[in-house]
Amino acid sequence: MIPNLPRYGFFVLIAATAGGQVASHAPTGGPSGPAAHAAVAAPMAADQPVATVNGTVLTGADLLREEYAIFPYARQHNGVPKELAAQIRDGAMKMLVFEELSYQEAQRRHMTISPVKLQNAEAQFRKQFPAPGQFNAFLQSEFHGSRRLLDEKIRRSLLIEAFLKTEVEDKCTITPAELRSAYEKNAARYRHPEMYTFQTISVLPPPNATADQLKEGRKRADQALRQAKQTKSAEDFGLLAEKISDDDYRVVMGQHKPVPVDQLAPQVINALHVMKVGDVSDLIQLDQAYTIVRLSEHVPAGQTKFEEVKAQLAKELQQTRRNQLRAALDRQMRQKAKIEEF
């Protein structure tokens, strides 16, 4: 089993078998159950060329490695889902070429990796193997026991990472002024309606309830209300909801996520408007059902403050810039490259 590895090149390697076939991409038998929808491509020889980049040959093993990086559940499903196969292969090919172009550009610039950094990367990689014997078996099966070949793959990965840090990551910084400007330009996004967060205990009638069943439901509701009024905390109320509530929220201790006021029934709104946090309502009748509400939080309509959203907004802006920089870099490198895909 290959451990989890850093992102680039060798570090997302999907191992080929000694016979040169990518065994993990082929099922041992016909898929069944959850795997029945999976489309399993014919096994591709690990050394079968799939593309060349400035004369460097990229192989089936390289492409499969990228496909599994995009869809890591492929092993469990005996391949990738049929409806996603073409899209995943296209994305994997683009990433495969992008990484090779990045590696070649790093070499052209004479970028280097220090021996210490290389040693640390290998040490971190080895830690992911539970026992030394497993690492040695991996080294033997993938690199014929050669530490030199292993180090070359690690070095390649680190060079790609260093190149992209220079050309992408180091240029993703968002200034405070840019952050504030983005918040103000998208002010409508941060407006929120009046919302309530609450817990419920509900008593629901059976379908086509008779008069006697409705009367019994009212008795149950009155009893539930007496018990709910005796609770002292959200946990007490939640435990009671687990035991006696008929609605589906009982499995989460009656807790509802924040609900905008325009999505609540008028009877519920009338009850919540006069409650304080921690209060338990009287019975609220909704048609033939009864609900008891415990108020957890009331958020008036307003604008979410800049300080509350700036961390998430910064991440979003950085990711947008990262995607733009990577796309521009990819276009720039491809313009000067000779690429053939098979």
What does this structure look like?
The chain is of the alpha+beta class. It has helices at residues 60-70, 82-108, 115-127, 132-143, 147-167, 176-185, 211-229, 234-244, 266-273, 306-335, and strands at residues 38-39, 49-53, 56-59, 80-81, 191-192, 195-203, 259-260, 284-286, 289-299, 302-303, 339-341. It has two domains: 9-167, Orthogonal Bundle (Triger factor/SurA peptide-binding fold), CATH 1.10.4030; 194-300, Chitinase A, domain 3. The protein has ten helices and eleven strands. The strands form four sheets. The chain has a four-stranded antiparallel sheet, with helices on both faces. The longest helix has 30 residues, at 306-335. 22% of the residues are buried.
Helices and strands in order:
Blueprint: E1 38-39, E2 49-53, E3 56-59, H1 60-70, E4 80-81, H2 82-108, H3 115-127, H4 132-143, H5 147-167, H6 176-185, E5 191-192, E6 195-203, H7 211-229, H8 234-244, E7 259-260, H9 266-273, E8 284-286, E9 289-299, E10 302-303, H10 306-335, E11 339-341
Antiparallel strand pairs: 1-4, 2-3, 2-11, 5-10, 6-7, 6-9, 8-9
Query: What is the residue-averaged pLDDT?
Result: 87
Let me know the number of strands: 11
Largest sheet report: 4 strands, antiparallel
C-alpha Rg, in Å? Answer: 30 Å
* Spans of at least 5 consecutive residues with low confidence: 1-7, 9-43
Termini separation (Å)? 30 Å
Instruction: Based on Cα principal axes, name the global outline.
Output: elongated
Strand-residue proportion: 5-15%
Structural class: alpha+beta
Spell the H/E element sequence.
Answer: EEEHEHHHHHEEHHEHEEEHE
Query: How many domains, as an integer?
Result: 2
CATH C-level name of the largest domain: Mainly Alpha
For CATH, the homologous superfamily of the largest domain is named as: Porin chaperone SurA, peptide-binding domain
CATH topology of the largest domain: Triger factor/SurA peptide-binding fold
Helical proportion, percent range: 40-55%
Q: With helices defined by DSSP (H or I, 4 residues minimum), what is the helix count?
A: 10
Spatial strand arrangement across the major sheet: 7-6-9-8
CATH architectural group of the largest domain: Orthogonal Bundle
